[in-house]
Amino acid sequence: MDGHPSEAARAAGSAVLGEVSGRRVLVVDLGPAGVAGAEAWLGGVRAALAAAPDLQASAGRSGPALAMALYAAAHRSAGGGAAPPVGAPDPSGGAIAAPSFVASVGDAVRRGVPTAARATVSARAPLRPGITEAQVGGPFGRGLAAHADSLVLLGRAEEPRVVRVLAGGTVELGAASADLLGLGAAGRAQALRRGSASAHTVATGPGAQAGLPFANLASYDGADPGAAPSVVGRGGLGAALASAGVVALTVEEAPSTTGAAPGAGDPGGDLEAALVRSPRLLTRAAGGTLELAASRATDLEVEGARRKHGCAGCPTPCGWTFEVDRGGAKVGGRFSALQGFAGHGDPLDLLERCNDLGIDARAVAALMGRHPGVGPDAFFAGLLDPASEAHAAAMDPGPLSAAGATFARGDLAAEVGQALAVRGPEPLRSLSILGLDGARAEQMVAPLPWSGDRERDAGTLAFWHECVAAAVDVSGFCSFSAAGLLADGIMGLSELAEALGLEAADGVPAAAGFLRAGADHLALHRELLGGELGVPVELAARHPAAVEAYLAARDADLGGTVPPVRRGGELAPGGLPSTVGDAGDPAAGGSPLTVLARGPLGSRLAGHPGLRRSGPETASSLEGVRIEVPVPSEGWTGPELLAALAAACPSAAPWLLDPAGRPLPAVLEVETPAGAAGGGALEGRRHRPGAVVELVLAIPGG
User: Fold this and answer.
1) pLDDT tens-digit profile of 63-81?
2) What value does the mean pLDDT take over residues 442-455?
3) Which of 110, 304, 385, 632 could form a disulfide with 145, with the two C-beta atoms 3.0–4.6 Å apart?
4) 3-state helix, strand and coil shares in percent for the chain, rounded to the nearest 5
5) Listed residue (365, 354, 391) closest to 185, CA to CA
6) Mean pLDDT, residues 310-338 taken together
């Protein structure tokens, strides 16, 4: 590959840079062997991959697939048994040591594809079996991509260290001073920045050094020291990095890449345009992930100045930066991270405390619920005190491993995926918003089978989505953006795969190749679990056909043909259901029901003829609109209501129905004719005259 070193490894300061399956791997041995140990390890990995075509293929895909190939090579060299603890002596004398920690970047990150700005961090973490991986945002990933495809840490440092990848490509392994260890995560990043706008840091906080199993990692932008961090907390990856004796990783941009234009590598230049055609992504960018709080009957309140932020080159940024009162700090906010703090204090203040200590907000919220009489000051101080009850409770991973583990309740495919997904439930967050069934689902999931049976197809869909999510993560692209493009019919799977750089090859369509890449990645995860992932007995008893179909899909041949998927973005001719009749016409008589819609969806419906224009609401209001829609006495189902709205207000149609005429929003009945509160999704129920229903656009990761 252009710009890569020769096959012989070369020293890069305290590290070794070498090529593995055409990918650049920067290896740091944290133990006494140093550079010599890194060189020996790199040679062993090359030999192991040369004898394993499947690992060679995974390594060549880069990103977390490269990381998993390295872990699997070590696993197989040790006879396939359980991996020894980090830093343990090698009992075999010839086995390759398993990495302590790996940071890697995918091809989409390296090519500057819009909203592909994520580094994947991988390790054996305390709250998950097997290898845990998570995507950390910010400029760290693109900074690393200029130097290597993967940064690998081996062994364990005896004293706390900082690993620096310098602008020239060399690596500096420095001691972490007592002053540095006395700072919070943001303070550490500031100190390590050394005044350089091109130095980007992934840091632990004091919680990691205190041994808290839910310690996380935060990425800080050296060019914007006041920006909120990008935080990942999955499985305790901060604790994993600290267990290797490392406090932080810092990458300086290579001079040739500083200021590179995001999106320069976008093949065809149409991916950014596709992103801004997705109603879900536009709504998410407008703040839907926080505004959903009102519809979910939570008492969470988020106030104060805020501004948008997102990944490099993303036209639909989904993050918020909030100002908080503790030293002018800024925190990033999402509804899912903040909702657990309702009733425990100011959610932004509590989130900022979590960021400062470098600990997962969901786990902290769960712990605070178990100590209701302890104030925030005493609680957070206690977490770092080995003698406190809060610390003792925090060191018990049992109740915390499931924190934040449930998404999309009531969706069978999501339930199956969350129970069986080999990487845990988080990558399944966008499954329930896809809304796939019928002909569209059959076309989308091919070459996997589609039977038309709800139970079996739920299992197939769960594994299909698991493969797609894994392949997207391997590329480094944003999983939420991918879900929005697919859910709204803006792109089919082949189009998405090609936009991310995967072309059809050897007679295998791009979509099938994309699924195969994801399936191969998941297979290595299963291998490194040390055994088969168990099927919950209760799930198998309730939904045996769904479990059977999931397992069958997992073992299917993904090299088959995939039918073409028409580019979406507009309703297909005849896409509106024909079952609505004349009730959607305001002149057709009938008693009305009231529709509430907010945000961008509400603004699209401002042209509906049934809009109420009295009072403080106006047709141009983004706060929400109220629409009266005549309905027959027997009422309408949710899909029938959306079809009527789309027919009466064509400008809103792409925000209500996908290209096949399927509904996009959730329909919530917030008040029945009798005045009783509803508050739940009423799919399949009929909304009759006098009802008040709310439209909530389903948002990836919301």
Assistant:
1) 999 999 999 999 999 887 4
2) 86
3) 110
4) 40, 15, 45
5) 354
6) 64
